[in-house]
Amino acid sequence: MMVMYLGYLAIILLGIYFTVGFLKISGEGLASLGYNNPMIEGMTDKDQACTIQENFEKNINKAIEAKQKALDKLNLEMEDGDYTDKLQELQSIDKELFVKSVVQGLSKGKNFDVGEIFGAIQQAAVTAPLGAFSYISDKAESTLD
How far apart are CA 105 and CA 97, in angstroms? Predict the structure, then answer.
């Protein structure tokens, strides 16, 4: 008789276990399988777009504030001097070196395929890293304007 009650109890516990597991899989499990946009009941696509815009503005404002604080701290620690002129001179020389290194690397290639182009850019960036950053920065600014 006791074994029969233990059997019933085991069946009931097993049923509860599978029911909870099934509900967990169908709810949280499906959401974690690749649905990046969680479905919020009552929210339309327009509401979700507003949320994305608000999150972007909040996150970009935080990033701007953090960068501005770091810049302010550096401005307090450093004084303006001749190093800015020398740094700009180095940057312009390095930028010219980068461009000419890319052209030289491309002139050695035969097919101008992706591998050769990236190889030339990578070699030039190793030769003149400051020039690579300033050249790319200048081009990025011109596309944003």
Answer: 12
